[in-house]
Amino acid sequence: MTVIEHINQAKDTVISFEILPPLKGKGISAIYDHLDPLMEFKPAFINVTYHRSETMFKKKPDGTFEKVEVRKRPGTVAICAAIMNHYKVDAVPHLICGGFSKNETENALIDLNFLGVDNVLILRGDAPSNETFFEPEPDGHRYAIDLMKQVANMNNGIYLEDDLKGVVKTKFCMGVAGYPEKHFEAPNMETDLRFLKAKVDSGAEYIITQMFFDNQRYFDFVKRCREIGITVPIIPGLKPITTKKQLAVIPRTFYVDIPSELANEIIKCKMDEEVAQVGTEWLIQQSKELKNFGVPVLHYYTLGKASVIAKVVKAI
Ligand code: FAD
Fold first, then answer.
1. pLDDT band at 58 (very low <50, low <70, confident <90, very high)
2. From 18, 95, 123, 297, mutation site for ligand 1 pocket: most ligand atoms within 8 A of C-beta
3. Contact 179, 209 (CB under 8 A)
4. Are residues 168 and 155 in contact, defined by beta-carbon separation less than 8 angstroms?
5. Which of 28, 108, 131, 206 qualifies as a cystine partner to 233, CB 3.0-4.6 A?
């Protein structure tokens, strides 16, 4: 079933989770151990992130260094298949522009279609950690909207080779990312929203937001989206803060603010266990308010914090 079908059929707010593929070398049990405690909440769908290769410098026996490409978290497509098979829950793979040629993208989409995956979350991806700006592959896509157009073409039976006969039309339901606090590269909110609207006008059926810790940011974002004619569901992305270090890491990594009330409570904590309690309580209050507001889905970035997310979902 597609994400949009889940939303349309639900009588109330539904739950969904986002997970990361485990680090290379771990088995599928790492995924099941993480998800098992969360399955009692009957998630409508589970997103699986995609992580591109990074360039690293590996020391050789002679003391010099060699440049190597390392993919620390492979397996997105296979993990989606495993989730759908094991839990009978729809999985949503993240598909990114970065590191992919159009041909590789098409092949990945063909695999997903064979596996019965109905959904894709379409993203640009970021520059690798050793580069400052995002650069597409020579025959790849620069923006998420360009990748969306390739998927939309396949949904219309248009593949890269135009002489294929009797082609199958794929039926991918496409979601895209939105930023209540603005994408970090966008010159201003208005321009960012204009590009978001273009993604929706090109076929995105829903938006999942970047995490935020102040619900007012989400409410304002939804209002501005509606004012410019974005009518699709806007799913809030939510994450718990569990360590003091995150006070600095989250704003630097995700370009989002941590409200002073929450930051002050965390600063007062002596141990990370106390921080996790504060972060969990904050996320419970955030979730309850969003549910009352009538959001279609509460989407949790679980990031190895299954026990915290389980407490939050139980409380709401
Ligand atoms: P785009 O929509 O392409 O936008 C990127 C920037 O370009 C924005 O500033 C936008 O305003 C601007 N822009 C858009 N279109 C145009 C245009 N036509 N002309 C000029 N400017 C334009 N990253 C991963 O690597 N893997 C993941 O699994 C992953 N999952 C994510 C899940 C969610 C819910 C979110 C919110 C983000 C995720 N990301 C992931 C991070 C994401 O890839 C980055 O935030 C990336 O920098 C932007 O991706 P995007 O799809 O929003 O890009």
1. confident
2. 123
3. yes
4. no
5. 206
Question: pLDDT by residue (tens digit) across 180-192?
Answer: 999 999 999 999 9
**CB of 80 within 8 A of CB of 34?**
no
**Number of domain units in the chain:** 1
Token look-up 């007012």 returns 216
CB of 146 shorter than 6 A to ligand 1? no
Is residue 73 in contact with ligand 1, taking CB distance under 6 Å? no
Q: Which pLDDT score, from 0 to 100, does residue 100 have?
A: 97
H-helix segments, 95-210: 102-114, 144-155, 189-201
Which residues span the domain enclosing 81? Answer: 3-315
Residues 28 and 311 sit within 8 Å (Cβ to Cβ): no
Res 129 pLDDT > 90: no
Judge whether residue 57 has pLDDT over 90: no
Answering whether pTM is above 0.85, one says yes
Average pLDDT of the chain is: 96
Question: Using alpha carbons only, what angle is made at residue 50 by residues 72 and 120, rounded to the nearest 5 degrees?
Answer: 165
